[in-house]
Amino acid sequence: TKFVYDFTEGNKDLKDLLGGKGANLAEMTNLGLPVPPGFTITTEACKEYLDSGAEPAALRAEVTEHLDALERQMGKKLGQADNPLLVSVRSGAKFSMPGMMDTVLNIGLSDESVNGLAQQAGSERFAWDSYRRLIQMFGKTVLGVDGDLFEEALEEAKRAKGVKVDVELDAADMKKLVGQFKEIVAKETERDFPQDPREQMDLAVRAVFESWNTDRAKLYRRQERIPGDLGTAVNVCSMVFGNLGPDSGTGVAFTRDPASGHQGVYGDYLQNAQGEDVVAGIRNTVPLAELEQLDKTSYDELMQIMETLETHYKDLCDIEFTIERGKLWMLQTRVGKRTAGAAFRIATQLVDQGLIDEAEALQRVNGAQLAQLMFPRFDEKAKTELIGRGIAASPGAAVGKAVFDSYTAVKWSRSGEKVILIRRETNPDDLNGMISAEGILTSRGGKTSHAAVVARGMGKTCVCGAEELEVDTKRRCLTAPGGVVIEEGDVVSIDGSTGKIYLGEVPVVPSPVVEYFEGRMHAGADDADELVKAVHRVMAYADRVRRLRVRANADNAEDAARARRFGAQGIGLCRTEHMFLGERREMVERLILADTGEEREAALAELLPLQKGDFVELFESMDGLPVTVRLLDPPLHEFLPDITELSVRVALAESRKDSNENDLRLLQAVHRLHEQNPMLGLRGVRLGLVIPGLFAMQVQAIAEAAAARRAAKGDPRAEIMIPLVGTVQELEIVREEAEQVIAEVERAHGVELGLTLGTMIELPRAALTAGQIAESADFFSFGTNDLTQTVWGFSRDDVEASFFTAYLEKGIFGVSPFETIDKDGVGSLVRNAAEAGRATRPDLKLGVCGEHGGDPESVHFFHEVGLDYVSCSPFRIPVARLEAGRAAA
Ligand code: ADP
Ligand code: MG
Ligand code: MG
C-alpha cells in the first residue's frame, strides 16, 4: 500500500484515505489555487499505527521520499541552519472534528535554524516568535506539557513589559520566552526540546495519530455519530507566515453566511498573526470586508477564489487563508457547516442558480435539521429585560440557569436543571458542558469561534462574542453594561437567531415552520418568511419523489386533524386503549369483574356506543384516507387500581370492619390478573381469545361507525389490526369472528364497508412465519417497538435507566435500537417477513408503526426494504416525508 500522497496526487473524493483536509488541499492544488506544497499521510497509516502501536514499516522511507521532493521544490531543506524549510503537521479526518485533534506549526525550527529564518525573513522578532510558538504547541500537543505553563509565562512577559497583546513584545522578549519555554519542557518532560527537525516531524506525526483517540475526540465522535475506527490522516504542509508584519495576516471566510445562507462577504481577519490566533480569539479580529482597505490585491484574489470554490463544490465552502507579505495562500477549504435554516435556503438558492437539481437539493438537507426548525422561539410580544447582545451563532431559544463552568453544567443538568453555559470563550475541554447545556453564551470570539462552530454542529443554541458582557468565571458571575449582575443559578434566556440575551425566563412561541405546517402561514404570500418558502419548496421536492407514504399514529380526532395538516396520508396506528380510560374505566372494571355472561354482555353493551362515537369522529377527520384501528392490546390489569394501593385500602377497611364488597372483588381480580411479566402475558390477541365478546364489540363499533359515515356520505376507510399475533391460528379465529360481525352490520345497513383485516408483526415468531400469517392477513404493520423488545429480549421501559448508558459508552450500540432500527437483527426479520408475506400474497400491504417510523435513518431502511408506508407521531410527519423523499431521490 501507498501511505503518502503528494497534494498533487489526491482529490476531493479521497476523503476516506486522505481525510477531508488533505483531500480538499489536493483538490485546491489541482484547481491551480495557491496552496503551499506538501503531502498527506493516509488514514491507513494511522489505523495501522493505532492497531499495532508502531508506524508501518514502509512509512519512514515513503515520508523521506516525499520530503525530499518537497525540499527540492522549495529549494530549502527541513530545518536547515541557514535557509530552513518549515512545515506544519496537521491532523485531518474524513469528517471534520473542529479543534478536536492536533496541529503543530513551524516544525523545523531549532536553536540554529531560528537564526537562518531571521536572516531569510529579515526579522529577528518574527523568527523568535515562530520558535516560541513551536515550542509551545509542540510542548503541549506532542510532549503533553500543561499548556497553561506556557500561557502563564507569556502573560508574565506581557505584564512585566506593561503591554496588552503579544505583538507588542519584541525580539528580545521572544528570545527570552524561548529560553523559558525550553526550561518548562525540560523540567516537565525530563528531556530537552528536540533539536533534530526530522525527529520533530516524526514525533508530531505520531502525536496526530494518537490524537484520534483522546477522550474529547471520542466524545465528539459519539455525539456526532462518527465511527471510531476511521483514523485521521496527517498533512505535512510547507509553512507560510501571517506573522511577518502588518502586511501579513491570517483569516477565515465563508462563501455565504452560514446562518442565513445569504451571499456576501463573511469572515474574520487578523493582521500580523499566525494560524490559530483567529479561532482562539487572542486578539480582536476585523470583519473580512475590511481586508479590502488593508490589501486590495489579496482581497480581490480571495473573492475570486471563493467564487471558483463555490462553483466547483456547488455548495457553501469555508476557508482558511494566510497572507504572507501581500501574497495570498489557501490553507484549507471544505463544504461548510451551516444552520438548519441556512441549509434549506442554500439548497433552494443553488437550485435557482442552476448549480444543483431538486434531487441534489434533497441531499443538502435532512430530517434532523427540519426537526430543529420546528423548535419554538421566543415570543416577540413578551415583556423582556434585554441585558446585552452578542453574535447569533446557532439558532434556537434557550432558557436556563446560568452556570460558568462545564463541571457545574454537567452536574446540574444531571439533576434535571436546565442550564445555560456561560464562558469567556470555550475550548474542547468544555465539550461535556456544552452537551449538557440548553444553550451556550460566550463573551469572546466570532462566528468561527470554537463555541459557535461546535454549537452549530450539535444543533445547540449559541450566542457568542457578547463583548459588552463581562464574564468572571472565578467569581461565577456576569456583569452587563447597565450594572446588572447575573450570578450562578440566575435564569437567563438567550436567542441564537438574534444574538439577544435576556434576564429571566422569556416565554416561547411556535416556529414559523410549524405555523406553516399548521396552515396558519402561507408559503405563497409575498411577505412569507424566506425560510418558510424554502421549506415549502424542499417538501414539495420530497413529496414528488418519495415512494413511501406517511401516516400518523393518532387516537383522536384532534391529533388526526393536525396530522392531516402536517401531510399525513392516513392513520397507521389508532390505539384503542386510550378510549378505555377516564370515566370509562369503571365500565372496563365491570367487564373484568363480570361473573356471568349477562354481566359481561351488559358491560360490553355500555362500551359499544362510546367506541362507535370515537371512531365516527376519527373516520370523519381522516375521510378518504386509511385508518388502521388496533384492537385492545395492553394487559387488563392496566385498567385496574394499583395492587399496593388497593391492598392498603382493603386492609384499612377491614380493620375498621366496613369492608366494601366491590373492593374485595377488585382485589381478587387484581391478584388473579397479576403477572410477573405483563409484557409477555395476557395481552393483544390473547385478550381477544380469552375474553368472549371483547374484540367482537370493538369490531362492531368500527363497522357501525363506518356505516354511519357512509350514511352521512363520507368515505371511511377502516383497517382492523390484530396485535401480538404469534401464529396464523390465532388470527384465523379472530378473523372468522370479525367477519361474521362485519357481515351482520353490513346486512343491517345494506352497505358494503370494504373493511380489511390485518395484523401487527411484532413477535419474532410472527416474523418467522410471516408466509403463513399472510394467508389470513390483508396487511402487515411492523410493530418495531415490541419487535425490538422481543428480539433483543429486553424491556423498553427498563433498559434506558439500567444498562443502556453503559452499552452506549462501551460502543455496543452507537444509538439505542429503540431510536434507530437495528438493521442487522430486527431489520433483517422485517426484511424477510416482508418478502415472505408478499410471496404468499403479492398485494399484501406493508407498513410500520412505532417510533422508528419517524426516525430518519430507519425511514431510509424501510424505503429500501420496500414497505408501503411508515406511521409516526403527528409532529414527526414532516421529517418522515422529507426523509422518504431523500431515500428515493
Ligand atoms: P484545525 O483543523 O484545527 O483548523 P489546521 O491544521 O487547519 O487545524 O491548522 C491550525 C491553524 O494553523 C489554521 O489556522 C491553519 O490555517 C494554520 N496553518 C496550518 N498549516 C499552516 C501552514 N503550513 N502555514 C501557515 N499556517 C498554517
Ligand atoms: Mg483548520
Ligand atoms: Mg406492540
TrEMBL record:
Residues 533-884 form the PEP-utilising enzyme C-terminal domain. Pfam families: PEP-utilizers, PEP-utilizers_C, PPDK_N. Keywords: ATP-binding, Kinase, Magnesium, Metal-binding, Nucleotide-binding, Pyruvate, Transferase. Its EC number is 2.7.9.1. It catalyses: pyruvate + phosphate + ATP = phosphoenolpyruvate + AMP + diphosphate + H(+). Residues 417-499 form the PEP-utilising enzyme mobile domain. It is an enzyme of class 2 (transferase). Residues 16-52, 59-284, 290-341 form the Pyruvate phosphate dikinase AMP/ATP-binding domain. This is Pyruvate, phosphate dikinase. It comes from Streptomyces olivaceiscleroticus.
